[in-house]
């Protein structure tokens, strides 16, 4: 009965206000986009706000799906800031909030917003940290389904019809951002007439990172066999002490006769908008499972993904132009972010990664 009540309310209200609660991280925001896209198609008259933290808001800034981007700045968290945020959210008088995160921090935002109706996705592993107390959880038909499918269960609940094999991420990249990136590449002496191979060696979990020396060996093989631009990307700091990973890889590369190394390092030098623009003009991407991998999938960039401890069926690249390389061992899947053994990652060899990159090239 509540389902019919909500859909009738959204249909009959001339401008219903919907709040999307998916504050972080990069990959999680990408996972929510297809559901938000379908909801916007179903209810084009709706006013959609999205609350995201300062690290990830750039992904959806100026996106035409969203009428209002609300930035929740974690660096300013204090009692006065929370009171101010509550006033801001309550002033919007939201009709519906949708929690796509399913954790305490998103449930806290739902509570601050106080929407008339409150729904939530079952997210990656169901609603946790008491988030289910604040919103009605909409569960997917299949418990073992990808996070994107779990989010789409909410869209389906709201009456949306879609083709799971033809989803629209609605990830927008402006011409201005592409021009900015091209100027950056020119200053780095990158030949724009050659194909670009992007490399992201980082990842939020230590246990999801392929060894840096194997990234270096793979880059050397690409340089030896192909005349391309190889560009290293990553965050300024990154999750789990990602800082310094780029220097480590570059130090392990073989040198050319003139003493230089054939690689361009843009780690920490790009905004999220510029990063997405760089993907748009790139030929191939290879990386560990992390936010940039999901951006590549959403933008249909040919990619090679190296996965380790996580379940690819739940959080891996979803129906993109991506080849997943993952070795199965007895302890998978796991959520041990700091595993020191990393057997699942060590079993992935340089030769098979290079072979898949060659196929994409």
Account of the protein in words:
The protein is an alpha/beta fold and 361 residues long. 37% of the residues lie in helices and 15% in strands.
* Oligomeric organization of the protein chains: single chain
* Helicity level: 25-40%
User: Count of DSSP E strands?
Assistant: 12
How far is the first residue's CA from the last residue's CA?
53 Å
Shape: globular
Sheet with the most strands, sense and barrel status: 6 strands, parallel
Give me some keywords for this one.
alpha/beta, 15% strand, six-stranded parallel sheet, 361 residues, 12 strands, single chain
Write the layout of secondary structure elements.
Elements (H helix, E strand, L loop, with lengths): L1 H11 L4 E5 L4 H17 L4 E7 L14 E5 L6 H14 L3 E4 L4 H10 L3 E5 L14 E3 L8 H11 L17 H13 L8 E5 L11 H14 L3 E4 L12 H8 L11 E2 L6 H9 L3 E5 L2 H8 L4 E5 L4 H4 L6 E5 L16 H4 L3 H11 L1
Parallel strand pairs: 1-2, 1-4, 2-3, 4-5, 5-6, 7-8, 7-10, 8-9, 10-11, 11-12
Helix pairs in contact: 2-5, 2-10, 6-9, 7-8, 7-13
Brief account:
The protein has helices at residues 2-12, 26-42, 79-92, 104-113, 147-157, 175-187, 212-225, 245-252, 272-280, 291-298, 312-315, 343-346, 350-360; strands at residues 17-21, 47-53, 68-72, 96-99, 117-121, 136-138, 196-200, 229-232, 264-265, 284-288, 303-307, 322-326. With 361 residues, the protein is α/β, with parallel strands linked by helices.
């Amino acid at each position: 009965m509540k389902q019919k009540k909500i859909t009738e309310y959204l249909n009959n209200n001339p401008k219903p206000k919907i709040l999307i609660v998916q504050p972080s991280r990069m990959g999680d925001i990408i996972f929510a986009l297809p559901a938000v896209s379908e909801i916007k198609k179903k209810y084009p008259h709706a006013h959609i706000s999205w609350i995201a933290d300062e690290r990830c808001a750039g992904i959806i800034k100026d996106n035409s799906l969203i009428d209002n981007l609300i930035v929740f700045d974690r660096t300013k968290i204090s009692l006065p800031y929370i009171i101010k945020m509550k006033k801001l959210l309550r002033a919007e008088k939201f009709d519906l909030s949708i929690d796509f995160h399913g954790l305490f921090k998103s449930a806290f935002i739902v509570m601050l917003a106080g929407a008339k109706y409150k729904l939530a996705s079952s997210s990656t592993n169901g609603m946790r940290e008491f988030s289910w107390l604040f919103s009605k959880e909409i569960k997917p038909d299949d418990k073992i389904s990808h996070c994107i499918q779990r989010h789409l269960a909410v869209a389906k609940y709201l009456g949306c019809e879609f083709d799971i094999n033809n989803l629209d991420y609605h990830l927008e990249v402006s011409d201005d951002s592409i021009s900015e990136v091209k100027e950056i590449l020119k200053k780095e002496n990158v030949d724009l007439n050659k194909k670009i191979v992007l490399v992201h060696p980082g990842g939020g979990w230590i246990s999801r990172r392929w060894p840096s020396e194997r990234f270096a060996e793979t880059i050397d093989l690409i340089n030896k066999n192909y005349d391309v631009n190889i560009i290293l990307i990553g965050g300024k700091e990154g999750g789990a002490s990602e800082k310094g990973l780029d220097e480590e890889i570059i130090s392990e590369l073989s040198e050319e006769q003139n003493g230089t190394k054939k690689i361009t390092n843009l780690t920490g030098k790009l905004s999220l908008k510029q990063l997405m623009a760089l993907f748009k003009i790139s030929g191939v991407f290879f990386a560990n499972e992390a936010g940039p991998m999901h951006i590549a999938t959403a933008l249909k960039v040919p990619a090679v993904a190296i996965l380790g401890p996580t379940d690819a069926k739940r959080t891996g690249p979803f129906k993109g132009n991506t080849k997943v390389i993952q070795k199965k061992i007895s302890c998978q899947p796991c959520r041990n972010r700091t595993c020191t053994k990393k057997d699942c990652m060590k079993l992935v060899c340089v030769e098979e990664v290079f072979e898949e990159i060659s196929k994409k090239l």
